[in-house]
Specification:
Length: 227
């Protein structure tokens, strides 16, 4: 069955989640952050994801923006920055303006030229996703931006992946799902999607029941897989 629909996770897959901390660290007077921004960005992201999983398990859903703020607060305290309210506001503001990875616009343009439907399927809140899409300028290539807020639970719950078929009327086998998160790819593979792991960090494959069909170091050659 041919692929008709290409669906992307947003944060870390299309948008660089380290950009906020990196850009803030480049500002004058941010020497303390400059010395630790990479570790802070990693801790922020790790806690953000951990809080989504825990909330999905316990049924205590909250918008993604809330777990984003909670994760940042934890990371700032870990790195001794918890008293810098100005920095917190700067980092949160920059998160609404995350840059797309360099290869993303051309990759999406090729998929659209090939007649594929393209969409985002993200844990992100609708307003967060709207801001990121607008800032990066990729909206013209997207047929839909799907948020877990419509089903009230975070990935990798199967209800989230089911949003794709509901929106596009396609079978799981027609979907190529792309994520930089190994656990997300495993969930999508188990649901029945064909999957691509954007393994930008060169990490080992997660030891989970379902594995990615394809592994790429970035998304440049994705259109070749989708055809």
């Amino acid at each position: 069955m041919p692929i008709t629909t290409c669906v992307f996770d947003a944060y870390g897959t299309l948008f660089d989640v380290t950009a906020a901390a990196r850009q803030a660290a480049e500002q004058p007077g941010r020497e303390k952050l400059a010395a630790s921004w990479q570790a802070l960005a990693a801790d922020w992201r790790a806690k953000q994801l951990q809080y989504t999983w825990l909330r999905a398990i316990t049924g205590e859903h909250t918008p993604f923006w809330n777990v984003t703020m909670d994760g940042l607060d934890w990371a700032m305290e870990k790195h001794g920055l918890e008293d810098d309210a100005e920095l917190r506001e700067i980092l949160l503001a920059l998160y609404w303006e995350l840059a797309a990875y360099p290869e993303v616009p051309a990759m999406l343009a090729k998929l659209k030229a090939a007649g594929k439907s393209c969409a985002i399927l993200s844990n992100g809140s609708p307003d967060m996703l709207e801001g990121a899409v607008a800032f990066s300028g990729i909206g013209t290539y997207l047929d839909a931006v799907l948020s877990v807020e419509d089903v009230g639970i975070f990935k990798p719950a199967s209800k989230v992946y089911g949003m794709v078929g509901a929106r596009f009327g396609c079978a799981p086998e027609e979907v190529l799902f792309v994520s930089s998160n190994g656990w997300d790819v495993a969930g999508a593979s188990g649901y029945g999607f064909r999957t691509v792991w954007a393994n930008r960090a060169g990490d080992p494959v997660d030891r989970l029941p379902h594995r990615p069909a394809h592994i790429l170091s970035d998304l440049t050659t994705l259109p070749e897989i989708a055809t």
